[in-house]
């Protein structure tokens, strides 16, 4: 695949993920958008092998999120838990820095975030 095709594929995946994030609860959307932007920026200059692995993982994320968004649309807001469990054996594929990032992401995504607690007026 040519460099232009690769850039186009990466850009399309990036944009699709950000569109899917619009369906997340506000605090998860803000966190997810920030994380996606940082990760895609961080991986701009990686080797072809690393880029391939990066794309596979983000395609898997997109597919999982897309399925969860569709499920939520069918059931109604608040009825679907977003995210997926990470198998313990997968952690062995991670570098120490990635495990640290994953831990920070887990902490951030599970803490109560009152700044995004938006409620409609009850009348």
Automatic annotation (TrEMBL):
<dbReference type="GO" id="GO:0005759">
    <property type="term" value="C:mitochondrial matrix"/>
</dbReference>
<comment type="subunit">
    <text>Interacts with the iron-sulfur protein subunit within the SDH catalytic dimer.</text>
</comment>
<dbReference type="Pfam" id="PF13233">
    <property type="entry name" value="Complex1_LYR_2"/>
</dbReference>
<dbReference type="InterPro" id="IPR008381">
    <property type="entry name" value="SDHAF3/Sdh7"/>
</dbReference>
<comment type="similarity">
    <text>Belongs to the complex I LYR family. SDHAF3 subfamily.</text>
</comment>
<keyword id="KW-0143">Chaperone</keyword>
<dbReference type="GO" id="GO:0034553">
    <property type="term" value="P:mitochondrial respiratory chain complex II assembly"/>
</dbReference>
<keyword id="KW-0809">Transit peptide</keyword>
<keyword id="KW-0496">Mitochondrion</keyword>
<protein>
    <recommendedName>
        <fullName>Succinate dehydrogenase assembly factor 3</fullName>
    </recommendedName>
</protein>
<dbReference type="GO" id="GO:0005758">
    <property type="term" value="C:mitochondrial intermembrane space"/>
</dbReference>
<comment type="function">
    <text>Plays an essential role in the assembly of succinate dehydrogenase (SDH), an enzyme complex (also referred to as respiratory complex II) that is a component of both the tricarboxylic acid (TCA) cycle and the mitochondrial electron transport chain, and which couples the oxidation of succinate to fumarate with the reduction of ubiquinone (coenzyme Q) to ubiquinol. Promotes maturation of the iron-sulfur protein subunit of the SDH catalytic dimer, protecting it from the deleterious effects of oxidants. May act together with SDHAF1.</text>
</comment>
<dbReference type="GO" id="GO:0006105">
    <property type="term" value="P:succinate metabolic process"/>
</dbReference>
